[in-house]
Write a structure and sequence with these properties.
Blueprint lengths: L22 E6 L2 E6 L5 E3 L2 H9 L6 E2 L9 H6 L1 E2 L8 H7 L3 E4 L7 H4 L5 E3 L6 H15 L3 H22 L5 E7 L2 E5 L7 H4 L17 E2 L2 H7 L3 E6 H4 L6 H4 L3 H4 L2 H4 L3 E3 L2 H6 L4 H15 L2
Parallel strand pairs: 3-6, 4-5, 6-7, 8-11, 11-12
Antiparallel strand pairs: 1-2, 8-9, 9-10
Helix pairs in contact: 5-6, 6-14
């Protein structure tokens, strides 16, 4: 599992960076790393990282072929394609000759291979999405000399978290569902989407769901039995650019009969930000804005 990776494996080849760059120490998914600040040519394999860097005004020179998230679309046209979310194009990376590569999430398993091309850090966001998301904002602020902007982003995030937590307080429990065509999975606290429960104090409609990547496969009967006050839905198909299908999948009498269905409390989140760029600054703010609007009605 990504969060079990050791602190010692930073996979940095610092000697290839410019000797005159000031060294800074930042927190990565594999521990603290000291490296030269302000890398001139930057390749980023992780969408959450591209998201947060964009919020800080940092533009990578290399990105994956598909970014999926609408508000990052302009980044794709400005940069060299360096592979997919999962597989780097080592030839393209070598041609770009980056000073630093940022990997994470879906590309975390490629850190060793990437480090043969250029210094590479793993900025995966996994278990503590909000806490690690804050850490990444601060780290990028330090790395790129944008500490003040990073502090402002963190303050805005914390304010939005507090505002949304106040809105959900006393409004009942929730069940988080991900649809993938006709398939349905449920996610609880400790899962990739579990920060919606833990960071906002939103009670789980059903506890002890599988915290692993793909959640628990569930049926309409399960949803009816749990009878959540709220359903929070992520459409994986739509997140990866396929036709949206979550509303059709959940158009079922058993779902309609739940408290959530009866009260019109089924919230369809913008799927790409939370599914593809989870933990990125704008991703989290987008999700929080949508939850705030739903629970404030």
């Amino acid at each position: 599992m990504l969060h079990h990776l050791g602190r010692a494996a930073a996979f940095l080849i610092l000697t290839s960076l410019p000797a005159w760059a000031e060294d800074v120490t930042i927190t990565t998914a594999r521990g603290e790393v000291t490296l030269p600040a302000n890398p001139a040519t930057l390749a980023v394999m992780d969408i959450a990282a591209i998201d947060t860097l964009a919020a800080l005004g940092v533009v990578p020179q290399g990105v994956p072929d598909k970014l999926y998230v609408p508000y990052l679309a302009d980044r794709a046209g400005e940069a060299t394609v360096i592979g997919t979310l999962f597989e780097p194009d080592l030839e393209a990376l070598a041609g770009l000759d980056p000073d630093l590569i940022i990997a994470g999430g879906r590309s975390a398993s490629q850190v060793e291979a990437l480090s043969q091309v250029a210094p590479t850090i793993d900025m995966t966001i996994w278990e503590d999405v909000v806490g690690q998301g804050r850490d990444r904002i601060a780290a990028y602020g330090t790395l790129f000399g944008k500490e003040e902007q990073a502090a402002q982003l963190i303050a805005a995030l914390d304010a939005k978290l507090a505002e949304t937590a106040a809105a959900v307080a006393g409004k009942g429990n929730a069940l988080i569902l991900q649809t993938n065509g006709p398939k349905i999975s449920a996610y609880g606290a400790g899962s990739r989407f579990g920060w919606i429960h833990t960071a906002l104090g939103l009670p789980e409609a059903h506890e002890n769901l599988n915290p692993e990547t793909h959640g628990d496969s569930v049926s309409f009967e399960f949803i009816a039995e749990v009878n959540p006050d709220w359903l929070i839905v992520i459409d994986r198909a739509a997140a990866i650019g396929e036709p949206a299908s979550a509303a059709d999948t959940l158009d079922n009498p058993l779902v309609a009969g739940t408290t959530a269905g009866q009260k019109g409390q089924i919230v369809y989140l913008s799927p790409a930000p939370i599914y593809i760029a989870g933990g990125g600054y704008t991703s989290m703010m987008t999700t929080l804005d949508e939850l705030l609007a739903a629970f404030s009605r």
